Amino acid sequence: MGTQFILSTPPPPTSIQQPLLSATPSFPLPKTHHTTSRKRRGRIHIHNTSKFGNFLDLKPEHQPETFDFDLPWFHPSDRARFDVIIIGAGPAGIRLAEQVSLYGVKVCCIDPEPLSLWPNNYGVWVDEFENLGLEDCLDKTWPMASVYLNDSKTKYLDRCYGRVSRKKLKGKLVQGCVSNGVRFYKAKVWQIKHREFESSVLCDDGTELKGSLIVDASGFGSTFIEYDNVRKRNHGFQIAHGILAEVDDHPFDLDKMVLMDWRDSHLGNEPYLRVSNSKFPTFLYAMPFNSNLIFLEETSLVSRPVLSYMEVKKRMVARLRHLGIRVNRILEDEKCLIPMGGPLPRIPQNVMAIGGTSGVVHPSTGYMVARTMAVAPVVAVAIAQCLGSTRMIRGKQLHDKVWNSLWPIEKRLVREFYSFGMETLLKLDLDGTRRFFDAFFNLKPYYWQGFLSSRLTLNELLWLSISLFGYASNPSRFDIVTKCPVPLAKMMANIALEYF
């Protein structure tokens, strides 16, 4: 969902953090669901659709951009020994490199294109970036967010939302890396080898670098992170198609971003799409920059198997026609595919992970960017306590301390609860989903905001569940009673595995 409710090699830009370092992803390739075939204070004017063409015929005008920065490069003739080697120069990798190098730890960041600008559109709650001192990395903010449940009911969320400036965020993090002595190397990592107290990476150009700790920040497609066979790799998947578009006009208020639009009146003349959407719903996520520039994304919050990408695009075409949004130019487009939930990596193991491959994606929403920015300093402290002192704690002790800084037992249990939320959402149809979010956003802001930002403790999540049942309508309570027992049993079994 842009943040993503969402967080790659262009064109087109995607919302799944890659460069991929292997042709075979570490998570199972998803099966796919297929089917047989101007707002004025709450009012949406429906237009004759004949004059609104299919925007899929337009080609995105986005061109890959290169970051203009003089990086300190590693040269193969240099001493190829570091404390930490980070694979990947996406937001997760650069953030960790910036943070851990603050403590004098020697870091090298390896990426095929370390100077490329990130193509993803990232959206965050403004208070999340303010808490991290990153509010100057937002290029647009909205004082409120809208949630359209149906044609007659809209919720307005009093919480500021912002779009991340990719150039500002990368510039700030890279500047920190350069100031702290981080070195960069332009290559792909093909292989990792381990000894008791040292590991090495072999790059595609034959260069070998050695370090006390290897961190994989290369995204969901990496094969360097290992999983236990105790739990089934049963990810849910968020899939979306997004465009940054110039339009004649659009019906959305400029002071509100659209977090979710669950209306389905645009499918009135599309019976096959409407039936499919009632079972496996999608919503519109929108960030209006002005009357003629808007980011639009049709999103399947979570599905298993993953919803067909073509199905998502067809629904988006029908929606934009119905809203009277005529797309004149596509400045950027992106396909978002995010694995959600499923088991965590094996803890600990020889390779540390951060970002998409580490399990920090919110299992119920797909949010990741702000969470990654927040956990990197915690992981950096753990690394520095081992490698930034004269004790030089390495090997198994190092791996154990660093992994448990990212995933202490409390956080693992909280994640199981969020995964329970995902499993429940998977069982809801469109009407059930609408009822759920109607009750969810009736909760006290502390709870719904804390849930979306992964800030709640386990006790607070339990209280949230009780409150949610109290706010729920009778049909929604029926959904909870009839559809939650199986996900609840899974959650309790997984918690038992964590404890025993």
Keywords:
D-Amino Acid Oxidase, Chain A, domain 2, 500 residues, FAD/NAD(P)-binding domain, seven-stranded mixed sheet, 23% strand, alpha/beta, disordered N terminus, 32% helix, globular
Describe this structure as you would to a colleague.
By secondary structure, the protein is an alpha/beta fold. The protein has three domains: 32-57 and 232-340, D-Amino Acid Oxidase, Chain A, domain 2 (2-Layer Sandwich), CATH 3.30.9; 81-121 and 130-137 and 150-231 and 342-407, 3-Layer(bba) Sandwich (FAD/NAD(P)-binding domain); 410-499, no CATH class. 32% of the residues lie in helices and 23% in strands. It has helices at residues 91-100, 126-131, 166-179, 271-279, 309-323, 369-387, 395-406, 409-426, 430-440, 445-452, 458-471, 474-483, 485-499, and strands at residues 32-33, 81-87, 107-111, 123-125, 138-142, 144-150, 153-157, 161-164, 183-186, 189-194, 199-203, 208-216, 236-247, 256-261, 283-288, 293-303, 306-307, 327-340, 351-353. The strands form four sheets. Strands 2, 3, 9, 10, 11, 12 and 19 form a seven-stranded mixed beta sheet that branches. Strands 7-6-14-15-16-13-18 form a seven-stranded mixed beta sheet, with helices on both faces. Strands 4-8-5 form a three-stranded antiparallel beta sheet. A hairpin with a 4-residue loop joins strand 10 and strand 11. Helix 6 runs antiparallel to helix 7 (395-406). The longest helix is centred in the last third of the chain and has 19 residues, at 369-387. The protein starts with 31 loop residues before the first strand and ends with a helix. The model is unreliable at 2-29 and 35-50 (pLDDT under 50).
